[in-house]
Design goal:
Length: about 290
Amino acid sequence: MRLTSLLFVPADSERKFDKARSIGADGLILDLEDSVAMGNKAAARKLLAGLIKASNGKRDWDFWVRVNPLDSGMTRQDLEAVIGSGLTGIILPKSNGGQDVSMLSDMIDPLEQAAGMAKNQVKVIVVATETAAAMFNLASYAPAHPRLAALTWGAEDLSAVVGSSSNKEADGTWTQPYQLARSLCLFAAANAEVPAIDTLYADFRDPEGLGASCRISRRDGFIGRLAIHPAQVDAINRAFAPNEEDLPLARRIVAAFDENPSLGTIGIDGKMYDMPHLKQAQRILAAMDQE
Ligand code: COA
Ligand code: MG
């Protein structure tokens, strides 16, 4: 499963789905939540069920569905429509913590079994910062539920909850409360030992700004990014592509520790490297399949 670029597609738009599937995203997130009007939910579920069946085995991207939140009263119907072979997993919005992953998982269990799928085959990605309560429960994703594939975060719903008139500074960076949410998502994911995916970049006509923003995401430790428009996918994939320039040093660090298995810290070119550096170097080589 690759999680570098996950493109949202409103689940009531077959036209957008047709466009999205050849765009090079690692995954599509067919959305049953905020991008589908209340009156269209039933039709969107029906359309989606057909799309999942039809695309099974014929695609090189993962098929995710964002369901309506647990307190909406719609989650079960959403799951009943979409759980089946061909589905990669569920995006849970407005999650309040690890207990919500368990609750969702209990709803998935019988549907997954009835569909003849392996236990815990249906993965879950949580949008971890969309309620006020969620902000106080971020440690509860650890130890990770077997379905938990990643954490991501969102600023818009949290802004509405808090009453922020804006979540961006004049230069486009996050204001302090939303920097905190972003950082806590990153720490919560590391704590649960799952990857963190940075939130969407709303200005879909600014690929350069998105690229710069993705480089910051990558630097900070996020492994990918949500997208809302096909034009964003390429910029995201490029920004997160394994970097050839990092390879030589990564190889030297791994080799130095291989040659000195009793050392916990080594010096290379006058700089100190220890276990976190080794881990990072191994990650870089694994991403390039060079280990
Ligand atoms: N997936 C697939 N195709 C998309 C798309 C998406 N997310 N966003 C736009 N497109 C398509 C459009 O349908 C259009 O195709 P067409 O020329 O064949 O009609 C083309 O790309 C160009 O679209 P554009 O005119 O630039 O944008 P728009 O005004 O039609 O749409 C949005 C803007 C924001 C409504 C649209 O990008 C969108 O629906 N994004 C996803 C929203 C979503 O799911 N939100 C939930 C998570 S926050
Ligand atoms: Mg939302």
